[in-house]
């Protein structure tokens, strides 16, 4: 089985550094093994770094770090272990842990490539989770196999494999991996969805996994088409100074909101949720002409830059939050 597409192979071979997220669990163990084999065959294994992030959240955390160290030492893979502090600010443990991991990934050089072990079951979980929280077309298209984190390329080569298939491959390769018992704790939303809700869905609708995946692929293509339309409109209502408020006022609320979102997204800024967008509408499009509103927002998981929106010379201006 060829885990990497031709495009992914080209990206890996041209990268200055390749960072594989390595928790020691089943997914990341197979990922590291396959990435190491490919790079060794290509005489590029000197670029590889296994990154283990120790969340220090469980009694076994240090033992898991030691497992990862030994796994890499046995194979002469360079490993870097980072201990992080999980600071919960109201968003819950899962989101806080994700923010801590992203901070570590963001510390690497912009020419590094990040390789992560998300698989098909993760994709299904993510789509359903977003449905329950509320989302649009882009959210329903799920996680991308290839994406950008800051300025770094992120690859997810296990995307077409199920968890069951990953376990089977690990057994064939006789590779040891960690089993995190906290994944059975259904007080965490993701675990409850994975362990309780999704099995019931598959029991009733056996083809749901395949159908949800197909839906995500269709929506991803539709979203590309939709955004190409928005980008054509964006060129007319913006320039190097920002968004032209007078031009935006001629549009209806929904189109205006979508243009602001895509404008911010193209600059790697956080995009506003519905309540934040209503505040933008009220402050910049319904307030007095002479007012000078300021709005700040950022994602709780820190995947995007925090942004400050202001008005200057009848332009909507976006600047990074530096606090």
Plain-language structure description:
With 323 residues, the protein is of the alpha/beta class. It is 50% helix and 15% strand. Helix 2 (26-41) packs across helix 7, helix 5 crosses helix 9 (208-237) and helix 9 crosses helix 11. The N and C termini lie far apart (47 Å). The relative contact order is 0.10. The mean pLDDT is 91.
Rounded radius of gyration (Å): 22 Å
Helix-strand pattern, N to C?
HEHEHEHEHHEEHHHEEHHHEEE
Please give the alpha-carbon distance between the first and last residues.
47 Å
| Amount of beta strand | 15-25%
What is the spatial order of strands in the main beta sheet? 3-2-1-4-6-5
Q: Say how many strands there are.
A: 11
- Mean pLDDT across the residues is 91
Task: Quickly count the helices.
Answer: 12
Classification by helices and strands: alpha/beta
The largest sheet is: 6 strands, mixed
Query: What level of helicity do the residues show?
Result: 40-55%
pLDDT under 50 segments (min length 5)? none
Global outline: globular
Key words describing this protein structure:
323 residues; 12 helices; alpha/beta
Compact summary:
This protein is α/β, with parallel strands linked by helices and about 325 residues long. The protein has helices at about 5-15, 25-40, 60-75, 95-105, 120-135, 135-140, 165-175, 190-205, 210-235, 245-250, 255-265, 275-285, and strands at about 15-20, 50-55, 80-85, 110-115, 145-150, 150-155, 240, 240-245, 295, 305-310, 315-320. Helices cover about 50% and strands about 15% of the residues.
């Amino acid at each position: 089985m060829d885990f990497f597409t031709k495009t992914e192979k080209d990206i890996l071979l041209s990268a200055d550094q390749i960072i594989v997220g390595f928790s020691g669990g089943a997914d990341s163990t197979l990922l590291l093994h396959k990435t190491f084999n490919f790079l060794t065959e290509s005489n590029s294994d000197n670029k590889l770094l296994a990154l283990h992030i120790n969340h220090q959240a469980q009694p076994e955390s240090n033992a898991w770090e030691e497992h990862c160290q030994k796994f890499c030492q046995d194979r002469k893979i360079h490993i870097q272990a980072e201990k992080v502090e999980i600071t919960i600010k109201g968003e819950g443990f899962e989101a806080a842990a994700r923010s801590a991991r992203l901070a570590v990934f963001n510390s690497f050089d912009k020419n590094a490539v990040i390789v992560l072990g998300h698989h098909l079951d993760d994709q299904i979980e993510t789509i359903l989770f977003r449905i329950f929280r509320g989302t649009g077309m882009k959210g329903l298209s799920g996680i991308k196999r290839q994406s950008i984190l800051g300025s770094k390329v992120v690859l997810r080569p296990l995307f077409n494999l199920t968890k069951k298939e990953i376990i089977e491959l690990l057994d064939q390769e006789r590779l040891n991996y960690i089993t995190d018992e906290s994944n059975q704790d259904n007080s965490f939303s993701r675990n409850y969805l994975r362990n309780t809700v999704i099995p019931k869905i598959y029991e009733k609708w056996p083809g749901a996994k395949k159908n949800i995946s197909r839906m995500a692929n269709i929506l991803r293509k539709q979203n590309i088409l939709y955004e190409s339309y928005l980008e054509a409109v964006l060129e007319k209502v913006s320039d190097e100074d920002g968004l032209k408020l007078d031009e935006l006022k001629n549009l209806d609320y929904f189109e205006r909101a979508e243009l602001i979102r895509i404008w911010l997204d193209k600059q790697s800024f956080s995009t506003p949720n519905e309540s934040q967008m209503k505040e933008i509408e009220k402050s910049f499009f319904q307030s007095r002409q002479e007012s000078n509103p300021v709005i700040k927002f950022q994602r709780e998981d820190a995947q995007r830059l925090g942004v400050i929106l202001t008005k200057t010379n009848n332009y909507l201006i976006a600047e990074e939050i530096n606090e």
